[in-house]
Amino acid sequence: MDFTKIIIIIISMVLVNNYPLAQFLGICPFLGVSKDLESSKGMGIAVTFVMVLATAATWPIQQLMNRFGIGYLQTVVFILVIAALVQLVEMFMKKSMPSLYSSLGIFLPLITTNCAVLGVCISNIDDGLNYFESLIQAFGAGIGFLFAMVIMAGVRSKLEDQSRIPESFRGVPIVLVTAAILSLSFMGFNGMFS
Amino acid sequence: MSLIFIAIVLVVVVGFIASLILSYASRVFAVQEDETFLALRAELPGANCGGCGFAGCDDYGHALVNDPDNVPCTKCSVGGPSVAEKLAAILGKDAGAMEKTAARVLCQGNSENCKPLYNYTDMTSCKAAKSLFGGSKACPHACLGLGDCVKACEYNAIHVVNGVARVFEDNCVSCSACVKACPQHVIEIKPVKSLVTVLCSNTQKGGDVMKECKTGCIGCMKCQKVCPKDAITVENFLSKIDVEKCVSCGLCAKECPTGAILNTRVIKKPAAKPTEEPAA
């Protein structure tokens, strides 16, 4: 395993191909849960956790499906597997890690429908990565998501006093404008790796 | 045709396996919920407002189950006394007297009493007004009357009347949302039964207060001297009534030269006129 390759995968997922800001996946929690720093941190960590776990489960399943020549059904199967997995993790955490459950609990069911999780599972397969590289890529994607969430929450806390914003921009519009400008700045990383 | 068949079979099989695993896991990882907790939780309103000081209704319910001797049943301000009684009945103990509390705006600086500092015509937000020379009223501790508290209130219990916010205690559940929203910090949670209140928050010297407002507390100490229960203390030229000691005798309100102390018992009797029902 090449150490530089790991670094490249992580930097590429966090900065260059950042999921919400450069690939536009997982936008719903990115806009919905980024109101305050605490919950955006919780959401980011939970997403990272589920991404790694989902990759760990879906990569072998894909290999199995390829063997039987039904690899094209990955989307349907992955959705089912991820949903079941999240439920399982939720039950497991409720029983054995109640404190972690109460801090992540609300976010876990939300993640089931997070397209970034499905996105990372499928892109791992599409990029032809091996098992270990897939896990690294999923972890990097999660960290990138966390990173974007925290930046967004930081910017939004500055926008809390809406009285300084023109009336027609208050609420959702200014959030979208903020996300667009953030996305612009992340576009600057494009072409870092060729 | 066989393509569809394969897809259907695969999804059914995967779904079946997943459901088997999940149903098995739900038995293995089942968390035994206390029956008492479930009963308590059913009585709690489920607003998850945090008014009780716990992180939501679930947390309060658990605290009640785990430590019934030290956690009082009367913490839920949304449910009020009726919920407290039910909780106490489930836990098999005495509810104790739950005092109904309500928010109270400690300012009488309406447009007649308090002089304006300038003519404020910008957006209707107390926070915005406060950023301009500390507000549009001469008194720096006045209720600005632009309705930040009204927006914060979910129970339609606070309204701006003649430039000063007023609480309709019947609707108020003392959730403290208005207390947090007020940039002037003139709203406090007080027991409803305490009828006599110093409705002023100005800590300036008497002379300054006189110039700014007709009904400000000037710190003359007359109320402190007249109080038979030693319930009144004057600090920073502002009188404060200790609600624990106060018996609402109303002597201080009679003595107060500026009318900063209000005895609602006097007003309440003729106040049979219906408070205007604001459009929801």
Description:
With 194 residues, chain A is mainly α. Chain A has one domain. In chain A, 76% of the residues lie in helices and 0% in strands. Chain A is built from ten helices and no strands. In chain A, α5 packs across α6 and α8 packs antiparallel against α9. The longest helix of chain A is centred in the first third of the chain and has 31 residues. Chain A starts with a helix and ends in a 7-residue tail after the last helix. Chain B has 280 residues and is of the alpha+beta class. Among the domains of chain B are: 93 residues, Alpha-Beta Plaits (2-Layer Sandwich), CATH 3.30.70; 76 residues, Alpha-Beta Plaits, CATH 3.30.70.20. In chain B, 34% of the residues lie in helices and 11% in strands. Chain B has eleven helices and eight strands. In chain B, the strands form four sheets. In chain B, strands 1-4 form a two-stranded antiparallel ribbon. In chain B, α2 crosses α3 and α2 runs antiparallel to α4. The radius of gyration of chain B is 26 Å and the shape is elongated. The interface between A and B is medium-sized, with 17 and 20 residues.
Could you name the key traits of this structure?
heterodimer, A: mainly alpha, B: 280 residues, alpha+beta, Alpha-Beta Plaits, two-stranded antiparallel sheet, 11 helices, 8 strands, elongated
